[in-house]
Specification:
The chain is mainly alpha-helical and 192 residues long. The chain has 8 helices and 2 strands.
């Protein structure tokens, strides 16, 4: 409809031999066509992304995690959104595929280093594996970037508690005196 109207105006201008008026009309027509083209391309891309996400959800329900990750990776190629990366990491974690979940969380940290979500996922996965050395390395990187997260703070407390509770500070004592041993806490000595 719009194109036929524009063509009629162009034909009218040509018949009137008023070519100076033709240039602005052509520019407006070209602008309108390009806007419609951009809008239609964007809607096609959004529908394609939505299709990939829906296919991934179906595969996830069927516990086909690698196939679902493939569909989400296709969506990532069209729209580099952190939610897709999180979806992959959580999906692998849900399927008890910890190594793949760790790789997906590392990818989040690599692609979005200023977002705490990747660090949160990575810490969770390292805690699940009881790999505290790598967890502390991630914490150093997290703190080096001066990021803040309540979830990371909770994980830090969990790591510290598990390390503290697993270490019995009296294991290295061999001799007791009448069933008691000397203990120093801060500046005070006592019997335990």
């Amino acid at each position: 409809l719009i194109l036929s109207l524009i063509l009629n105006i162009i034909i009218w201008v040509i018949k009137m031999k008023n070519y100076k008026n033709l240039v602005p009309i052509l520019l407006v027509a070209l602008m309108i066509v390009s806007i419609f083209s951009i809008i239609s391309d964007a809607s096609k891309q959004n529908s394609t992304i939505q299709s990939y996400v829906e296919q991934a959800a179906v595969c996830r329900e069927q516990k086909l995690y690698d196939r679902a990750a493939g569909y989400i990776n296709n969506a990532i190629e069209l729209d580099n959104d952190i939610e897709y990366y999180i979806n992959i990491a959580d999906m692998y974690y849900e399927g008890n595929m910890i190594i793949e979940a760790i790789d997906a969380a590392k990818r989040i940290v690599k692609e979005f280093p200023e977002d705490s979500v990747g660090y949160e996922r990575l810490l969770l996965f390292y805690i699940e594996c009881k790999d505290y050395k790598k967890a502390y390395k991630i914490l150093d990187d997290f703190n080096g970037r001066k990021l803040k997260s309540n979830i990371v703070d909770e994980y830090i407390k969990e790591i510290e508690y598990s390390n503290f509770s697993s270490y019995n500070s009296f294991d290295d004592l061999k001799q007791l005196s009448n069933g008691y041993m000397a203990v120093k806490k801060k500046e005070l000595w006592g019997l335990a």
